[in-house]
Amino acid sequence: MFLKNAWYVAAWDHEVARELKPLTILGENIVLYRKQDGQAAALEDACPHRKLPLSMGRIKGDDVECGYHGLTFDCSGTCTRVPGAERIPHVAKVRSYPVHERYGLLWIWMGDADKADPQEIFEVKHFGDPAWGINRGESMTLNCNYLYMTDNLLDPSHVA
Fold this sequence. Notes:
Elements: E1 7-12, E2 21-25, E3 28-34, E4 40-44, E5 58-60, E6 63-65, E7 72-73, E8 79-81, E9 96-97, E10 99-102, E11 105-109, H1 146-154
Antiparallel strand pairs: 1-11, 2-3, 3-4, 4-9, 5-6, 6-7, 7-8, 10-11
């Protein structure tokens, strides 16, 4: 069970480009990419036809084309093209997720899109202030219980 109506960090802003980036957040498979104008977009990573991950397809303009039968979806999740068909079935759609960039991060809203308000992303005071330093180094993966890391990071003697 997850808290859905909240903003979650999906990726560093530099990790998402004009290519399809699959990830799983709160147990949901998502594909992130950037549109031609540089804005990030996020869609459910499963074509409604045969559930092939859209991340195995390709970007065409600002849309994502499924690699199986070529169904194409815009960044709102609406199917815009079905090869060989003149009429697009109303059920041919995927979920889209609100995405917002702030603090060098891509934030994603996993709940009801109508409730997504970027003002609810917590404020990081002094972000961007040259008097404060920002560490954008690599992270470490440690095979331990998260409580050990929390204890370690809260220990003032570990702060340089």
